[in-house]
Specification:
Layout (H helix, E strand, L loop, with lengths): L6 E3 L5 E5 L13 E7 L2 H6 L3 E2 L4 E3 L1 H5 L9 E4 L7 E4 L9 E6 L6 H18 L10 H4 L4 E3 L2 H40 L12 E2 L6 E2 L3 E4 L4 E5 L13 E3 L22 H7 L6 E4 L7 E3 L6 E3 L3 E6 L6 H9 L1 H10 L10 H5 L2 E4 L2 H40 L7
Length: 408
Protein backbone atom coordinates (compact mmCIF):
# COMPACT_ATOMS: atom_id res chain seq x y z
CA UNK A 1 0.00 0.00 0.00
CA UNK A 2 1.56 3.29 -1.06
CA UNK A 3 2.48 5.94 1.43
CA UNK A 4 0.63 8.52 -0.74
CA UNK A 5 -2.66 6.97 0.33
CA UNK A 6 -2.16 8.46 3.79
CA UNK A 7 -3.58 11.99 3.85
CA UNK A 8 -3.20 14.87 6.31
CA UNK A 9 -6.54 16.16 7.58
CA UNK A 10 -7.85 18.08 10.56
CA UNK A 11 -9.87 16.31 13.21
CA UNK A 12 -13.11 18.07 12.27
CA UNK A 13 -12.77 16.74 8.71
CA UNK A 14 -13.13 13.21 10.08
CA UNK A 15 -16.28 13.75 12.12
CA UNK A 16 -18.05 16.03 14.58
CA UNK A 17 -15.94 17.85 17.19
CA UNK A 18 -17.49 19.74 20.09
CA UNK A 19 -16.83 20.73 23.68
CA UNK A 20 -18.67 19.24 26.60
CA UNK A 21 -21.24 21.32 28.41
CA UNK A 22 -21.59 22.31 32.04
CA UNK A 23 -23.09 25.80 32.02
CA UNK A 24 -24.41 26.07 35.55
CA UNK A 25 -22.60 28.22 38.09
CA UNK A 26 -21.67 27.26 40.73
CA UNK A 27 -20.75 23.84 39.43
CA UNK A 28 -20.78 22.37 42.91
CA UNK A 29 -24.52 23.04 43.38
CA UNK A 30 -25.81 19.91 45.09
CA UNK A 31 -29.02 19.66 43.07
CA UNK A 32 -27.01 19.01 39.88
CA UNK A 33 -25.59 15.73 41.15
CA UNK A 34 -26.53 12.32 42.46
CA UNK A 35 -28.78 11.22 39.62
CA UNK A 36 -28.58 8.41 37.05
CA UNK A 37 -26.43 10.11 34.40
CA UNK A 38 -22.65 9.43 34.46
CA UNK A 39 -20.61 12.64 34.57
CA UNK A 40 -17.07 11.99 33.35
CA UNK A 41 -14.33 14.40 34.40
CA UNK A 42 -10.74 14.82 33.20
CA UNK A 43 -9.39 12.60 35.99
CA UNK A 44 -11.72 9.78 34.96
CA UNK A 45 -10.45 10.00 31.38
CA UNK A 46 -6.82 9.98 32.50
CA UNK A 47 -7.46 6.92 34.68
CA UNK A 48 -9.18 4.99 31.87
CA UNK A 49 -7.22 2.57 29.73
CA UNK A 50 -9.14 2.59 26.45
CA UNK A 51 -12.89 2.52 27.09
CA UNK A 52 -14.40 5.02 29.51
CA UNK A 53 -16.90 3.38 31.85
CA UNK A 54 -15.77 4.29 35.39
CA UNK A 55 -16.86 7.60 36.90
CA UNK A 56 -16.79 9.35 40.26
CA UNK A 57 -19.77 11.66 39.82
CA UNK A 58 -23.28 11.58 38.32
CA UNK A 59 -25.76 14.20 37.14
CA UNK A 60 -29.37 14.55 38.19
CA UNK A 61 -32.12 15.55 35.74
CA UNK A 62 -31.20 19.17 36.49
CA UNK A 63 -27.56 18.42 35.84
CA UNK A 64 -28.37 16.81 32.51
CA UNK A 65 -30.53 19.78 31.52
CA UNK A 66 -27.50 22.11 31.60
CA UNK A 67 -25.17 19.58 29.99
CA UNK A 68 -25.34 17.06 27.12
CA UNK A 69 -25.57 13.27 26.99
CA UNK A 70 -22.99 11.81 24.60
CA UNK A 71 -23.32 8.35 23.07
CA UNK A 72 -20.97 5.34 23.37
CA UNK A 73 -18.23 5.49 20.76
CA UNK A 74 -17.50 9.18 21.41
CA UNK A 75 -13.78 9.89 21.79
CA UNK A 76 -13.27 12.07 24.88
CA UNK A 77 -10.22 14.37 24.77
CA UNK A 78 -9.14 16.46 27.75
CA UNK A 79 -8.12 20.05 27.03
CA UNK A 80 -7.59 21.30 30.61
CA UNK A 81 -6.11 19.91 33.85
CA UNK A 82 -4.94 16.60 32.35
CA UNK A 83 -3.99 17.71 28.84
CA UNK A 84 -4.52 15.49 25.76
CA UNK A 85 -5.67 12.38 27.60
CA UNK A 86 -8.26 10.41 25.67
CA UNK A 87 -10.63 7.47 25.98
CA UNK A 88 -13.66 6.15 24.12
CA UNK A 89 -17.02 6.30 25.87
CA UNK A 90 -18.23 2.80 26.62
CA UNK A 91 -21.57 4.03 27.98
CA UNK A 92 -23.70 7.14 27.61
CA UNK A 93 -22.42 10.03 29.67
CA UNK A 94 -21.90 13.76 30.16
CA UNK A 95 -18.66 15.69 30.47
CA UNK A 96 -17.71 19.34 31.11
CA UNK A 97 -16.26 21.92 28.73
CA UNK A 98 -12.75 20.88 29.77
CA UNK A 99 -13.34 17.81 27.58
CA UNK A 100 -13.82 17.69 23.81
CA UNK A 101 -16.00 15.04 22.21
CA UNK A 102 -15.20 13.58 18.77
CA UNK A 103 -17.84 11.54 16.94
CA UNK A 104 -16.30 9.80 13.93
CA UNK A 105 -17.90 9.95 10.50
CA UNK A 106 -18.28 6.20 9.81
CA UNK A 107 -17.37 6.75 6.16
CA UNK A 108 -14.10 8.51 6.98
CA UNK A 109 -12.67 7.34 10.30
CA UNK A 110 -12.46 4.48 12.77
CA UNK A 111 -12.69 6.09 16.22
CA UNK A 112 -10.24 3.52 17.62
CA UNK A 113 -7.62 4.55 15.06
CA UNK A 114 -8.16 8.24 15.91
CA UNK A 115 -7.73 7.45 19.62
CA UNK A 116 -4.42 5.73 18.91
CA UNK A 117 -3.30 8.59 16.69
CA UNK A 118 -4.16 10.97 19.55
CA UNK A 119 -1.74 8.98 21.71
CA UNK A 120 1.09 9.71 19.26
CA UNK A 121 0.29 13.44 19.38
CA UNK A 122 -0.06 13.71 23.16
CA UNK A 123 3.39 15.15 23.89
CA UNK A 124 3.09 17.71 21.08
CA UNK A 125 -0.34 18.77 22.31
CA UNK A 126 0.91 19.09 25.87
CA UNK A 127 3.84 21.18 24.65
CA UNK A 128 1.67 23.76 22.86
CA UNK A 129 -0.71 23.87 25.84
CA UNK A 130 1.73 25.20 28.42
CA UNK A 131 0.67 28.55 29.83
CA UNK A 132 2.01 31.05 32.32
CA UNK A 133 -0.64 30.27 34.91
CA UNK A 134 -2.58 27.24 33.65
CA UNK A 135 -2.10 24.72 30.86
CA UNK A 136 -4.87 24.73 28.27
CA UNK A 137 -5.12 22.99 24.93
CA UNK A 138 -8.29 24.74 23.62
CA UNK A 139 -10.45 23.50 20.80
CA UNK A 140 -8.78 25.90 18.38
CA UNK A 141 -5.32 24.50 19.08
CA UNK A 142 -6.60 20.93 18.83
CA UNK A 143 -8.05 21.57 15.38
CA UNK A 144 -4.72 22.88 14.07
CA UNK A 145 -3.07 19.46 14.38
CA UNK A 146 -2.71 17.26 11.30
CA UNK A 147 -4.02 13.72 11.55
CA UNK A 148 -2.30 11.52 8.95
CA UNK A 149 -4.85 8.84 8.13
CA UNK A 150 -4.87 5.93 5.66
CA UNK A 151 -7.98 4.62 3.88
CA UNK A 152 -10.71 3.39 6.21
CA UNK A 153 -9.98 -0.36 5.71
CA UNK A 154 -6.36 0.23 6.79
CA UNK A 155 -7.50 2.27 9.79
CA UNK A 156 -9.70 -0.62 10.84
CA UNK A 157 -6.92 -3.17 10.40
CA UNK A 158 -4.49 -1.13 12.52
CA UNK A 159 -7.16 -0.51 15.14
CA UNK A 160 -7.98 -4.24 15.37
CA UNK A 161 -4.32 -5.11 16.01
CA UNK A 162 -3.83 -2.49 18.73
CA UNK A 163 -7.26 -2.83 20.36
CA UNK A 164 -6.65 -6.57 20.85
CA UNK A 165 -4.02 -5.58 23.43
CA UNK A 166 -6.35 -3.08 25.10
CA UNK A 167 -9.11 -5.68 25.34
CA UNK A 168 -6.70 -8.00 27.15
CA UNK A 169 -5.60 -5.13 29.41
CA UNK A 170 -9.18 -4.23 30.29
CA UNK A 171 -9.99 -7.88 30.97
CA UNK A 172 -7.01 -8.07 33.35
CA UNK A 173 -8.14 -4.86 35.05
CA UNK A 174 -11.61 -6.28 35.63
CA UNK A 175 -10.07 -9.40 37.17
CA UNK A 176 -7.80 -7.25 39.34
CA UNK A 177 -10.86 -5.32 40.56
CA UNK A 178 -12.60 -8.58 41.48
CA UNK A 179 -9.54 -9.78 43.40
CA UNK A 180 -9.37 -6.46 45.27
CA UNK A 181 -12.97 -6.85 46.35
CA UNK A 182 -12.38 -10.46 47.41
CA UNK A 183 -9.64 -9.39 49.82
CA UNK A 184 -11.79 -6.61 51.26
CA UNK A 185 -14.78 -8.93 51.60
CA UNK A 186 -12.80 -11.52 53.57
CA UNK A 187 -11.41 -8.85 55.89
CA UNK A 188 -14.85 -7.39 56.52
CA UNK A 189 -16.49 -10.79 57.03
CA UNK A 190 -13.87 -11.97 59.51
CA UNK A 191 -12.85 -8.85 61.39
CA UNK A 192 -15.83 -6.49 61.16
CA UNK A 193 -18.82 -8.83 61.00
CA UNK A 194 -17.03 -11.48 63.16
CA UNK A 195 -17.93 -14.37 60.82
CA UNK A 196 -14.44 -15.88 60.86
CA UNK A 197 -13.74 -19.64 60.81
CA UNK A 198 -14.89 -21.08 64.14
CA UNK A 199 -16.82 -17.98 65.20
CA UNK A 200 -19.78 -20.13 66.28
CA UNK A 201 -17.76 -21.59 69.15
CA UNK A 202 -16.64 -18.29 70.66
CA UNK A 203 -18.87 -16.32 73.01
CA UNK A 204 -18.94 -12.50 72.96
CA UNK A 205 -17.50 -10.43 75.79
CA UNK A 206 -17.87 -6.77 76.64
CA UNK A 207 -15.13 -4.30 75.68
CA UNK A 208 -14.64 -0.56 75.18
CA UNK A 209 -15.50 -1.11 71.51
CA UNK A 210 -18.66 -3.10 72.24
CA UNK A 211 -19.19 -6.85 72.40
CA UNK A 212 -16.29 -8.70 70.78
CA UNK A 213 -15.31 -12.37 70.39
CA UNK A 214 -13.62 -13.88 73.40
CA UNK A 215 -9.84 -13.86 73.03
CA UNK A 216 -9.78 -10.68 70.95
CA UNK A 217 -8.10 -7.58 72.39
CA UNK A 218 -8.66 -3.83 72.14
CA UNK A 219 -5.26 -2.32 71.33
CA UNK A 220 -3.75 1.02 70.32
CA UNK A 221 -2.16 0.96 66.86
CA UNK A 222 0.80 3.01 68.12
CA UNK A 223 1.86 0.08 70.30
CA UNK A 224 2.15 -2.22 67.29
CA UNK A 225 3.65 -0.08 64.49
CA UNK A 226 6.44 2.33 63.74
CA UNK A 227 5.86 5.38 61.53
CA UNK A 228 8.17 7.41 59.31
CA UNK A 229 7.60 10.49 57.16
CA UNK A 230 8.67 10.29 53.53
CA UNK A 231 11.49 11.82 51.51
CA UNK A 232 11.33 15.26 49.85
CA UNK A 233 12.60 15.44 46.27
CA UNK A 234 11.50 16.30 42.74
CA UNK A 235 10.26 13.59 40.40
CA UNK A 236 11.98 12.63 37.18
CA UNK A 237 10.65 10.58 34.27
CA UNK A 238 14.17 9.26 33.64
CA UNK A 239 15.68 6.50 35.85
CA UNK A 240 17.99 8.85 37.80
CA UNK A 241 17.50 6.84 40.99
CA UNK A 242 14.88 4.65 42.64
CA UNK A 243 11.16 4.84 42.00
CA UNK A 244 9.54 7.70 43.96
CA UNK A 245 6.14 6.60 45.32
CA UNK A 246 3.66 9.47 45.71
CA UNK A 247 0.14 9.89 47.00
CA UNK A 248 -1.29 9.94 43.48
CA UNK A 249 0.15 6.46 42.95
CA UNK A 250 -2.03 4.92 45.66
CA UNK A 251 -5.13 7.11 46.00
CA UNK A 252 -7.19 5.49 43.23
CA UNK A 253 -6.49 1.76 43.59
CA UNK A 254 -5.63 -0.79 46.28
CA UNK A 255 -2.41 -1.76 44.48
CA UNK A 256 0.67 -0.01 43.12
CA UNK A 257 1.32 0.07 39.37
CA UNK A 258 5.08 0.59 39.49
CA UNK A 259 5.28 1.22 35.74
CA UNK A 260 3.49 4.55 36.37
CA UNK A 261 5.70 5.63 39.30
CA UNK A 262 8.46 8.17 38.44
CA UNK A 263 12.05 8.27 39.71
CA UNK A 264 14.05 10.61 41.92
CA UNK A 265 17.72 11.29 42.71
CA UNK A 266 18.83 10.28 46.21
CA UNK A 267 22.01 9.75 48.21
CA UNK A 268 22.95 6.22 49.30
CA UNK A 269 22.35 7.09 52.95
CA UNK A 270 18.89 8.50 52.28
CA UNK A 271 18.03 5.51 50.12
CA UNK A 272 18.72 3.21 53.05
CA UNK A 273 16.56 5.37 55.33
CA UNK A 274 13.58 5.67 52.96
CA UNK A 275 13.77 2.43 51.01
CA UNK A 276 10.53 0.50 50.60
CA UNK A 277 10.42 -3.27 51.06
CA UNK A 278 7.82 -5.91 50.31
CA UNK A 279 5.15 -5.76 52.99
CA UNK A 280 5.58 -2.05 53.78
CA UNK A 281 2.32 -0.15 54.15
CA UNK A 282 2.13 3.56 53.27
CA UNK A 283 -0.66 6.03 53.98
CA UNK A 284 -1.32 9.48 52.55
CA UNK A 285 -1.04 12.23 55.16
CA UNK A 286 -1.84 15.36 53.11
CA UNK A 287 -4.39 16.43 50.47
CA UNK A 288 -6.16 13.05 50.50
CA UNK A 289 -5.39 11.72 54.00
CA UNK A 290 -6.15 8.12 54.81
CA UNK A 291 -5.69 6.48 51.40
CA UNK A 292 -3.37 3.50 51.80
CA UNK A 293 -1.13 1.23 49.72
CA UNK A 294 1.02 -1.83 50.26
CA UNK A 295 4.31 -2.78 48.61
CA UNK A 296 3.93 -6.21 46.99
CA UNK A 297 6.81 -6.26 44.52
CA UNK A 298 10.55 -6.13 45.12
CA UNK A 299 11.26 -2.75 43.53
CA UNK A 300 14.00 -0.21 44.21
CA UNK A 301 11.81 2.57 45.58
CA UNK A 302 11.45 5.25 48.24
CA UNK A 303 8.35 7.12 49.40
CA UNK A 304 7.51 10.81 49.12
CA UNK A 305 7.03 13.30 51.93
CA UNK A 306 3.21 13.31 51.62
CA UNK A 307 3.28 9.66 52.67
CA UNK A 308 3.93 7.96 56.01
CA UNK A 309 5.31 4.44 56.19
CA UNK A 310 3.51 2.30 58.78
CA UNK A 311 5.41 -0.87 59.65
CA UNK A 312 4.48 -3.62 62.13
CA UNK A 313 6.85 -3.91 65.08
CA UNK A 314 4.95 -6.77 66.72
CA UNK A 315 4.67 -10.12 64.94
CA UNK A 316 1.03 -10.41 65.97
CA UNK A 317 0.31 -7.76 63.33
CA UNK A 318 0.90 -8.96 59.76
CA UNK A 319 1.27 -6.75 56.63
CA UNK A 320 -1.98 -7.64 54.86
CA UNK A 321 -3.99 -7.47 58.07
CA UNK A 322 -2.51 -4.01 58.70
CA UNK A 323 -3.20 -2.95 55.10
CA UNK A 324 -6.87 -3.95 55.21
CA UNK A 325 -7.26 -2.48 58.70
CA UNK A 326 -6.03 0.90 57.41
CA UNK A 327 -8.09 0.54 54.23
CA UNK A 328 -11.30 -0.24 56.13
CA UNK A 329 -14.23 2.16 56.11
CA UNK A 330 -13.98 2.44 59.90
CA UNK A 331 -10.36 3.58 59.85
CA UNK A 332 -10.92 5.91 56.88
CA UNK A 333 -13.81 7.58 58.73
CA UNK A 334 -11.54 8.02 61.76
CA UNK A 335 -8.60 9.54 59.86
CA UNK A 336 -10.67 11.86 57.66
CA UNK A 337 -12.62 13.05 60.69
CA UNK A 338 -9.46 13.65 62.71
CA UNK A 339 -7.46 15.36 59.94
CA UNK A 340 -6.79 19.05 60.49
CA UNK A 341 -6.65 21.99 58.12
CA UNK A 342 -9.28 24.48 57.01
CA UNK A 343 -8.39 24.34 53.31
CA UNK A 344 -6.06 21.36 53.03
CA UNK A 345 -6.59 18.32 55.20
CA UNK A 346 -3.54 16.69 56.77
CA UNK A 347 -2.79 13.96 59.26
CA UNK A 348 0.28 13.53 61.46
CA UNK A 349 2.05 10.28 62.19
CA UNK A 350 0.82 10.46 65.75
CA UNK A 351 -2.77 10.87 64.62
CA UNK A 352 -2.47 7.96 62.18
CA UNK A 353 -1.28 5.64 64.95
CA UNK A 354 -3.62 6.99 67.65
CA UNK A 355 -6.35 4.51 66.79
CA UNK A 356 -7.94 1.74 68.78
CA UNK A 357 -8.43 -1.51 66.89
CA UNK A 358 -9.41 -5.09 67.57
CA UNK A 359 -6.52 -7.53 67.55
CA UNK A 360 -7.65 -11.13 66.85
CA UNK A 361 -5.68 -14.15 68.06
CA UNK A 362 -2.38 -14.76 66.28
CA UNK A 363 -3.62 -17.97 64.58
CA UNK A 364 -6.54 -16.16 62.94
CA UNK A 365 -4.35 -13.32 61.71
CA UNK A 366 -1.90 -15.87 60.25
CA UNK A 367 -4.74 -17.73 58.52
CA UNK A 368 -6.03 -14.47 57.03
CA UNK A 369 -2.52 -13.60 55.84
CA UNK A 370 -2.14 -16.97 54.11
CA UNK A 371 -5.51 -16.80 52.40
CA UNK A 372 -5.23 -13.20 51.24
CA UNK A 373 -1.60 -13.65 50.13
CA UNK A 374 -2.81 -16.10 47.46
CA UNK A 375 -5.36 -13.58 46.19
CA UNK A 376 -2.87 -10.74 46.14
CA UNK A 377 -0.24 -12.91 44.44
CA UNK A 378 -2.63 -13.52 41.56
CA UNK A 379 -3.43 -9.80 41.48
CA UNK A 380 0.29 -8.99 41.21
CA UNK A 381 0.72 -11.51 38.39
CA UNK A 382 -2.12 -9.90 36.45
CA UNK A 383 -0.65 -6.46 37.09
CA UNK A 384 2.73 -7.52 35.69
CA UNK A 385 0.95 -9.04 32.68
CA UNK A 386 -0.85 -5.77 32.11
CA UNK A 387 2.45 -3.88 32.18
CA UNK A 388 3.88 -6.22 29.53
CA UNK A 389 0.78 -5.85 27.34
CA UNK A 390 1.00 -2.05 27.56
CA UNK A 391 4.69 -2.15 26.73
CA UNK A 392 4.11 -4.30 23.64
CA UNK A 393 1.19 -2.13 22.49
CA UNK A 394 3.24 1.04 22.95
CA UNK A 395 6.08 -0.42 20.89
CA UNK A 396 3.68 -1.31 18.09
CA UNK A 397 1.82 2.00 18.17
CA UNK A 398 4.37 4.28 16.42
CA UNK A 399 5.33 1.56 13.95
CA UNK A 400 1.79 0.92 12.79
CA UNK A 401 0.88 4.59 12.65
CA UNK A 402 4.01 5.67 10.77
CA UNK A 403 3.17 6.06 7.09
CA UNK A 404 6.34 4.41 5.69
CA UNK A 405 5.58 1.32 7.82
CA UNK A 406 2.43 0.70 5.78
CA UNK A 407 4.01 1.10 2.37
CA UNK A 408 4.56 -2.00 0.25
Amino acid sequence: MATAEWTAVKLDELGFVGRGKSRHRPRDAAFLYGGPYPFFQTGDIKAANFHLTEYTQTYSEEGLAQSKLWNPGTLCITIAANIAESAILGIKGCFPDSVVGFVANPDKADVRFIKYYMDTLKLQMQSVSRGATQDNLSLEKLLKFDFHVPPLPVQRRIARILSAYDELIENDQRRIGILEEMGRAIYREWFVDFRFPGHEKLPRVASSLGNIPKGWEVQKLADFVTTKYGYTESTNAEPVGPRYLRGMDINKTGYIDWAEVPYCPITPADYVAYRLRVGDVVIIRMADPGKVGIVEQDVEAVFASYLIRVAPKDNRLRPYFLFYLLESAEYYAYITGASTGATRKSASAGMIADYQFLLPPRQLVDLFETRVSKIRSLLTTLLKQTVNLRRTRNLLLPRLLARPAMSA
